[in-house]
Amino acid sequence: MVRKLSKAGPGSLPPSSSTASAATDSTTLSASSASSLLPRILTDELPLPKLIVFDLDYTLWPFWVDTHVTPPIKPVSRDNTAAIDRTGETFAFYTDVPHILHTLPLAGVRLAVASRTHAPDLARDMLKLLHVAPPDPSDLPPPITTSSSSSAPDKKAKKGKDSSAGGKPRRALDFFDAGAEMYPSSKLRHMEALRRRTGVPHEEVLFFDDEARNREVEQLGVTMCLVRDGVSWAEVERGVREWRRRRGVGEGTWRAHPHAQDPAAWQE
């Protein structure tokens, strides 16, 4: 049984009472219980960040990979949606994470990881071992096409093998096409490395993290969304709204447009 492991790190938000109580009972973090409804934020034709970056610990999964996991690790389920370590502890993503990883690329968003973990090799192994099963096709939005040249890599990625609904489960690591910066360092360094690799400006980046100290990335122009206890669809929606607010984007400044990510759709 997967359970949420406790944390008491500096600068992190305490878990909400509802999350904590659920974890105390029998928290299941499988994709099967993920929300079947997509947030309107992905289908409202307003702009989305070109790149969304996720921290790992207590953001994508409910543990510190360099503290709570004792290697070696191996799959514990037939579809590789959970892992077990040498001590018998079981690990998996937060409930909504698999659905989120599958869906955001279909909306034209690239994904990346930025983690200051002291066990980067183990973190990478976990991302390779944990697989993400395709969601029900009815839960997914139609792919967004765009005439913007800057989004060409997104269109190419969406044509890849098993890149949409259907197909076999894929390694979680494969969803982070923009890269995975995982090493002890400032998140400023992580963001600079991602900018050099992808060419995506900091202003087009939304970052999810559970530690307030990592707000330092906002001095670069990145929008950070501080999560209480893991990424969920509600947190994704909150983060995108904050990213739009910082850019001065709203229903009154963006006209309905079939190519929602095309800069030509900006309303003067």
Automatic annotation (TrEMBL):
Highest taxon in the source lineage: Eukaryota
List where Pro residues composition bias occurs. Answer: 134-144
**Compositionally biased, Low complexity: which spans?**
8-25
Residues covered by region (Disordered): 1-25, 134-171
Which GO terms fall under molecular function for this chain's record? acid phosphatase activity
Secretion signal span: none
Q: What is this protein called?
A: Magnesium dependent
